[in-house]
Design goal:
By secondary structure, the chain is α+β, with helices and mostly antiparallel strands. Helices cover 31% and strands 24% of the residues. The chain has 2 domains: 212 residues, Chloramphenicol Acetyltransferase; 215 residues, Chloramphenicol acetyltransferase-like domain (Chloramphenicol Acetyltransferase), CATH 3.30.559. It has a 6-stranded mixed β-sheet. The chain has a 6-stranded mixed β-sheet with strand order 10-16-15-13-11-12. A 4-stranded antiparallel β-sheet has the order 2-5-4-7. The two termini are 40 Å apart. It comes from Triticum aestivum.
Length: 448
């Protein structure tokens, strides 16, 4: 059994900011939802890592510099009883700062963990700290650095009410640049960012946000009932750029530009999501999903710059600015010979709908309350997230990075794969009874 020993607890606290940021209605539901836990594994097979103490010192110092540029990450989510709001308090307060944990494990092999397609879930969880979020004030960020056999793990946990995927990767890019000593690059990443939640102008204004908060967290500041993580099998697939190109051709039917009346080639996101959806349905048919069932795929869309919000939210907004999207089909359509094309068309329609009216499913938690979860694929992340490219802290890109917070059978997490070039990393959470069939259909479809 793997053991991880905590060596040191520390706190990184940049100069406090006199800043109080009330959460928006798009952020309020995330107060009761799982945090973002991500681990980065660095294999030192080539012996390029600095000594562990030096590596830790660089990470700690650069984190402090980065937090000074991104003050919400060093704050706390607090409850304001006078108004009923939840807000990010960036000022100096009891327990402020970011916990920075140093750990070691003599029996966790960095090379093995980074190379295994199947996740060692227990090991990955041991490399990320827990965030204190079961009541307000709640932490926003914590970091753990673990010395491994032949490498190191950097675990980061962040509150989803304060950051979405786009903001997470912006933070990591700025932190890594600062750790490499490239202050100009770090400054460029955060230049022009806005933290003001008032830029998200939703109908109903502040009262809309308060009613949303009361709906999902009625007992604030205490008794936040967080959704539990499920101990389900997880596996990572890498879909190469060439394989994605073949998937797109399968829909468009030719390599030339789409002609009038033909189906346009899907994006990489749509192609991978459609394949995962079809593989999910096939893996659970007929034991769980019958041909007559409706099946669903849920994903998020970034609201920054969308016409449906007036005025549009700046691309430089640092926070959580996403809403839900839901595509629906009958299992029979996805089980058919042209099931991939049917899935692609359904996902494309929902992407187009969301681009025109991004706020239609803003209250996505209410939507999921009636959803049959055993017939739902839940997509997180995006092939646009440069997970490996931006996380070079000065000793090379990570050998592996994974999202630890995977909550149900059928969750798929997407990021750009290591090496870039249009390849996609897809991490899949499935019940053991169905993972084998999912893997078989997913990989056979890519090789066909």
């Amino acid at each position: 059994m793997l053991t991880v020993k905590i060596v040191e607890f520390d706190s990184v606290a940049p100069p406090p900011e006199d800043l109080l940021l009330r959460l928006s209605a798009l952020e309020a539901p995330w107060v009761v939802l799982p945090v973002i836990q991500r681990v980065f594994l660095f294999d030192d097979a080539g012996g390029q890592h600095p000594p562990f103490a030096s590596l830790v010192g660089s990470l700690r110092a650069s984190l402090e510099a980065t937090l000074a540029r991104l003050p919400p990450l060093a704050g706390r989510i607090v409850f304001l009883p006078s108004t009923g709001d939840a807000a990010i308090d960036c000022s100096a307060s009891e327990g402020s700062g970011v916990r920075f944990i140093i750990a070691e494990s003599d029996d966790a092999d960095a090379g093995r963990l980074a190379g295994d397609a199947d996740h060692d879930v227990d090991a990955f969880k041991a490399f990320v700290p827990k965030l204190k979020v079961d009541a307000l004030p709640a932490e926003v960020l914590a970091v753990q650095v673990t010395r491994l056999k032949g490498g190191v793990a950097v675990g980061v946990v962040m509150h989803h009410a304060v950051v979405d995927g786009r903001s997470v990767w912006r933070f990591l890019q700025a932190w890594a640049a600062a750790c490499r000593g490239d202050d100009a690059a770090a400054e460029a990443v955060v230049a022009g960012l806005t933290f003001d939640r008032a830029v998200i102008a939703l109908p109903g204004g502040e009262e809309h946000t308060r009613s949303t908060l009361r709906k999902y967290a009625p007992n604030l500041p205490l008794e936040i009932n967080l959704f539990p993580n499920a101990p389900i099998n997880r596996r990572t697939f890498t879909v190469t750029a060439q394989q994605i190109h073949r998937l797109k051709q399968r829909v468009s039917g030719h390599t030339a530009p789409a002609q009038a009346g033909s189906t346009p080639a899907p994006s990489s996101f749509v192609a991978v999501v459609a394949l995962a959806w079809v593989s999910f349905v096939r893996s659970k048919h007929p034991a769980v999903i019958s041909a007559d069932h409706d099946v669903y795929v849920f994903f998020f869309i970034d609201c920054r710059g969308r016409r449906g919000i007036d005025p549009p939210v700046s691309q430089n907004y640092f926070g959580t600015c996403i809403t839900g999207c839901l595509a629906k089909a009958t299992a029979r359509d996805l089980l058919a010979v042209d099931g991939f094309a049917a899935a692609t068309a359904a996902v494309q329609r929902e992407v187009r709908r969301a681009a025109e009216d991004p706020l239609a499913l803003w209250d996505w938690m209410d939507l999921l309350s009636w959803m049959p979860m055993d017939r739902l694929v839940n997509i997180s992340g995006s092939p646009r997230y440069p997970a490996y490219e931006v996380a070079d802290f000065g000793w090379g890109a990570p050998s592996r990075t994974e999202l630890i917070t995977m909550n149900n059978c059928g969750q798929v997490v997407l990021v750009a794969a290591k090496g870039g070039g249009g390849s996609v990393q897809a991490s899949v959470c499935m019940h053991p009874d169905h993972m084998g069939a999912f893997k078989s259909h997913f990989l056979n479809s890519l090789s066909g």
